[in-house]
Amino acid sequence: MNIAWKEIKKSKAKFIILGSIIFLVSFLTFIISGLANGLSQDNAALIKDLPDGQFYMNDDANETYNLSKIDESTQDKVLNDQKDAAAFSIQMGFVNDAEDKQHSVAFVTSTDSRLFEKVGEGEIVLDRSLEEDGIKVGDTITNNQFSGEFTVKGFVDQKKYSHAPVAYINMENYKEIYGVDEMQLVFVAGQEKGPDIAGLQSFSSKEFFNTIPSYSAEQMSLNMIVWFLVVISGMLFAIFFYMMNVQKIGLYGILKALGVKTSRLFGMMWSQMLFITVIALTLSVALSQGFTMIAPEGMPFSLTLQTTVQLSIIFVIIGFVGATLSGIQIKKVEPLQAIQQGEV
Amino acid sequence: MTIFTIDEVKKTFINGEVKEQVLKGINLSLHQGEITALVGASGSGKSTILTIAAGLQRATDGQVLFNKKNMTDMSQEQIRKIRASEFGFVFQSSHLVPFLTVEEQLMLMLDVSGTKMKKKEQKVEVAKILKLIDMDHRRDAYPASLSGGEKQRVAIARAIIHKPKMLFADEPTASLDSKRSKDVMTLIRELTKTLSITTLMVTHDEEMLSYADHVITMKDGLIL
User: Cβ contacts (< 8 Å) between A244 and chain B: which residues?
Assistant: First the structure.
């Protein structure tokens, strides 16, 4: 006989309340996680979308790409030696549209590479968010440090850097705007551990993210919130299962007196925990995935099904551990003590 | 035929530095199919001897022999198996499982006792015993909707449905009025005689002693 299910059927309100708490806490965690990923995407989509590989900046740049200037001869040697390599630079700046409205952008330029947009002199390719601001293909764009004008050649999806839309420009135009001849970075794709290059310091993708100003601080804070929520949820699960078990201690004692095995009582508790948690998490995953579809346009929100499933597995594990810890009372309960306590 | 023997059983409770000996050497033999009533004042040790006999706590000294097997040497798991399959319990409160119907309470006991019955056979067995205790009309009722007398009748049915060899009853009529107490005792007597179940019962109600085959009086941890 499935006594776990019989109890759920008879005490619906109690289990609905417990399920609601698991649902609300997990939903909150999913949403915060979505915002964290969204902000991360907003901050570094340009870099995140690059394939696995190594980044290089010069040794004395103090791990700050803005200070990096790669010597032309070194750059040429790397680009000749490595098949899938590109040199590129990123600088924050502004552009003015045809109506002279100013837009903050991250100018990106690179050597000829399939990894970056190819743009000719006087052309500009923008992130699609600027299309939503009213800029169209063929529009003329200006920059106060650039003597000429840019013509909008097209738009690319989801290319952001430091929360600003990316603007791909030709290298010659970039050099004019920023008055530099050297590129800041070299990227070599497809290598987990890149070759040692004299005068250059190499960074994995993960290490490079930490060199982006504000990225690591922002992500650390957001990830901390997510993990705090996960830990707090775990404690909440444990407390609620503990309270439920304390309430049922007399019942467990009587069942033990009748000869019910302790393992069967644990099985009862685990199956109830699994039942509530799975239903609550399924609802939570469905709703959070639904939210990704209706989230406001400008909100940086990115929540993949994979992330929610991974977090759900963590919640199930935490729920299981919490329930098991609180279930130690089941092992301890003395049948005689329960009988003497009176009616359950 | 002697089925249960309590031999020089002693029990001492230790509370901090205070030692209290509540059983000072009890000897008792129970015969198959007979009802033995333990009477005595509060603190005489009658409930303690009942719970030791029922395997709910261990004696400090002495032997408890069931079917010639010494329970004092058995592991917790061995005692649990005996409790589940060979013993039945009726407590002062009915202690029914609040989320199970009357029928489910009895089916759970059949399940726990390890009878290899199919669900259909279990239902037939439950129907038989519910008819016997005149509760077949309350088969689908939950404990909360039963009266005190009805609850106790279900508790008795639960204690004997798996046809145990021993029934332990700790003041089974204490929470009932006089008429219901007599009904419950009549039921216990009828069922245990029909099924040849050996019963050890603790009571403080003298009226109930007429239902017992033997009456044993206890005082200060000893049999008088």
Answer: none
Percentage of chain A beyond pLDDT 90 is 49
Selection from B96, B87, B99, B167 nearest residue A1 by Cα = B99
Angle, vertex CA A273, rays to CA A270 and CA A279, nearest 5: 135
Among the partner-chain residues B51, B93, B108, the one whose CB lies closest to the CB of A3 is: B108
Contacts of B87 in chain A (CB under 8 A): 259
Question: Could you tell me the end-to-end alpha-carbon distance of chain B, in angstroms, rounded to an integer?
Answer: 23
Closest partner CB to A11 (pick from B93, B99, B109): B99
- Taking residues A264-286, report their average pLDDT: 93
The number of distinct structural domains making up chain A is: 2
Residues of A in contact with B92 (CB under 8 A): 342
Q: List the beta strands (DSSP E) in A128-254.
A: 140-141, 150-156, 160-161, 164-169, 185-189, 200-204
For the residues of A243-310, what is the DSSP string, one character each? HHHHHTHHHHHHHHHHT--HHHHHHHHHHHHHHHHHHHHHHHHHHHHHHHHHS-TTS-----HHHHHH
Query: Are residues A207 and A220 both part of a single domain?
Result: no
State ipTM: 0.86
pLDDT of residue A344: 54
Class (C level, CATH) for B2-223: alpha beta
Domain that holds residue A161: 47-211
Same domain, A184 and A92: yes
Q: In the listed set A211, A230, A245, which residue is the last one of a domain according to the structure? A: A211
CB-nearest partner of A254 from B57, B84, B95? B95
| Domain end among A211, A235, A268 | A211
